[in-house]
Structure formats: C-alpha cells, structure tokens
Amino acid sequence: MELATALKDYVGRETPLYHAQNLTNHYKNINGEGPEIYLKREDLNHGGSYKMNNVIAQAILAKLMGRKSVITATSAGHHGVATAAVCAKLSLECTIFVGTRDMQRKPSNLQLMKLLGAKVKLVDGNFQAAASESIRAWLENLETDYYLAGTAVGPHPIPTMVREFNSVIGKETRKQAMEKWGGKPDVLVACVGSGCNALGEIGVYHGAMCYLLQDEDGQIIRTQSVASGVDCYTVTDQEAVDAYKRLGRLEGIIPALETSHALAYLEKLCPTLPRGAKVVVNCSGSRYNDAPVVLNKS
Ligand SMILES: *Cc1c(COP(=O)(O)O)cnc(C)c1O
Predict the structure, then answer these.
(1) Rounded distance, CA 275 to CA 34, Å?
(2) Which pLDDT band holds residue 230 (cuts at 50, 70, 90)?
(3) Model pLDDT, residue 186
(4) 52 ligand 1 Cβ < 6 A
(5) Which domain of life does the UniProt lineage start with (predicted)?
(6) CA 23 from centroid of its chain's CA atoms
(7) Residue nearest to atom 13 of ligand 1 (CA)
(8) pLDDT tens digits, residue range 14-27?
C-alpha cells in the first residue's frame, strides 16, 4: 500500500482547518475585538488522533522490510489503538506493552486493542516500565520484529521518522492557511505529552542520546501538562477540564483531555493578541471515554 493513498482513503486526510466561530466570539473583548481561532482537526483521523499519521507510515515500512510482527508500548492508548488497527489492516502480528497503572485509567482502550487483534502484555508500573519491557522483547527478535515507536524518543532514525511522518499536519496547515486567508498562522498552539516536540536537555534514555526532561543527576523528571507554541506553559487539571467542556458546548466538538491543555491556554493567550490575529490550535485528538474523568472533576 502506498502511503499517500493510505493517508487519504484509510486515515481520512486531509483534515479540515476549521474556523471555530463560537470559540472566536467567546474571546472577543468588550469592543468586539480579538483573534480568529482555527482548529486543525487531527481528531478526525481514523482512530481518533494524530498518532495515525506516524503509525501507518511506519507499518508500511515494516511490511516493505518483510517484517512479520510489530512491537510497541502505549500509555494512554491512542498510539496502541492506532498501531493495532493498522497491523490488522496490513496483516502484521501486533504485541503492545501497557503499564498497569495507565490501563487502570483507560480500560476501554485495552478492549479496543484486543478487538483489533493485538496481543496486550501488561507490565507492572507506568509507561516507562512498559516501554523498557517492550524494547527488551524486541531485542530478542530483531530479525523478525519491527519496533514501532510512537514518539520522538530513542536512537536515530526514530525521532527523524516520527517528525517526518507527522510533518504532514504542519504542511497541510500551511497550505490551508494560504487558501483561507492568504498568509501563515500568527500563533500555533499544541499540547505535548511524551514529546513529539523536542524539549529538555541532552541526556540518555534507553541507552540513546536525546533531548529530555532530567534533573542534575540525569534522572528523568516526570512530565507535566504543557501547551506550547515556541514557549512552554503549564495548565492545571481544572483549566484543562474547563476547556474540554467549553469546546463541547461552544463548538459541539469533544476533544481529548491532552488536547484540552492546548485549548486551556487560549484563556491566557487570547487577551494578549491583536484583533484578527490568526491562532491555530492542533486539535490533536478526541476520546469520548475521557468523559467520565471530566464529569467526576466538575
Ligand atoms: C499522544 C497525544 C498527545 C501528545 O503527543 P506527544 O507525542 O506525547 O507530544 C496529544 N494529544 C493526543 C490526542 C495524543 O494522543
């Protein structure tokens, strides 16, 4: 299968650059002035998030390399679900490592991965434990298995591949912005979890030199919720929950909780921007099974 065709007919690209008129109105000041807000609808990708862009490209590579099976690890589950789906489509065996602590939060993703035919291996602990275990398993079967990395962490060429395969989002956004208002966006807002956007200092993770969040002794620091353009901002749980509900009520779109962190930053950003400034938020995913978490919080 050719990547361009797969992205179009299986993933459903290109995704819309959507003018969120009600959200735009919400941020107008008393003089009726404010920025124009657009959502890059990556939540509309097959599987419900931008993760599919990278996963389908790497799975096609695995197939071209003659690999029979794919190994990966997932935390919240979007990467795992996307990988399981594509492996089913390409007739690749699929094994996914999941930390027990993550899966208690998202049991329905576990069921989805199994329904899609993946073998799910539970590992005591969090995503870091699951990731280490998955790499160990892969090292035992280097000749036959393909390790399908979900984020820009690890040895070359993983970060390059993940960046390259997700750059479709930026390229499309640029083209669509040209078509819609004849220019580039003034501000891009996105949320970061494990870090498809490079962040941190040079250090060592899983034996490879890379950029990461670490303390003075080179120990990995736990990630925090951050939404960023070039700068990084943290957002509280409550702010993210409020943003999640706001998008549903104003635009009829239920975002993922991750995405809600980027949306929450609009509260701080919008009052600082001049009238007509073009803001693009990467609506990175949707996940209806976040709803119970949100309703419990409010
Ligand atoms: C994974 C994910 C993110 C975070 O991506 P990173 O690669 O961790 O920066 C954001 N939004 C959604 C919906 C995701 O699934």
Answers:
(1) 4
(2) very low
(3) 94
(4) no
(5) Eukaryota
(6) 22
(7) 285
(8) 999 999 999 999 99
94 lines ligand 1 (CB under 6 A): no
Residues 281/283/284/286 CA torsion (nearest 10 deg): 160
Look at residues 58, 14, 105, 51 and name the one whose alpha carbon lies nearest to residue 285: 51
What are the respective helix, strand and coil percentages of the chain, to the nearest 5?
45, 20, 35
Q: Do 2-48+160-297 and 51-153 have matching folds?
A: yes
Chain-wide mean pLDDT for the chain? 88
| CATH 3.40.50.1100 given to domain 2-48+160-297 | yes
**Chain segment 118-166, per-residue pLDDT in tens:** 999 999 998 889 999 999 999 999 999 999 998 877 778 988 898 889 8
**CB-ligand 1 contact for 78 (6 Å cutoff):** yes
pLDDT of residue 160: 87
Domain ranges of the chain: 2-48+160-297, 51-153
In the reported structure, the alpha carbon of residue 141 is separated from the centroid of ligand 1 by a whole-number distance in angstroms of 28
193 CA to centre of ligand 1 in angstroms? 5
From 39, 163, 211, 284, give the residue whose CB has the most ligand 1 atoms within 8 Å, as the site to mutate. 284
| Residue among 243, 277, 275 at smallest CA distance from 30 | 275
Q: Establish whether residue 285 lines the binding site of ligand 1, counting it when its CB lies within 6 angstroms of any ligand atom.
A: yes
Q: Rounded to whole angstroms, how far apart are CA atoms 92 and 72?
A: 13
Instruction: Just give the CATH number of 51-153.
Output: 3.40.50.1100
Neighbours of 295 (CB within 10 A): 10
Q: List all residues 6 or more positions away from 272 whose beta carbon is below 8 Å from its beta carbon.
A: none
Order of strands across the sheet that contains 232-234 = 17-19, 36-40, 278-282, 187-192, 226-228, 232-234
Ligand 1 centroid to 32 CA: how many Å?
34
CA separation for the pair 253, 18 (Å, rounded)? 11
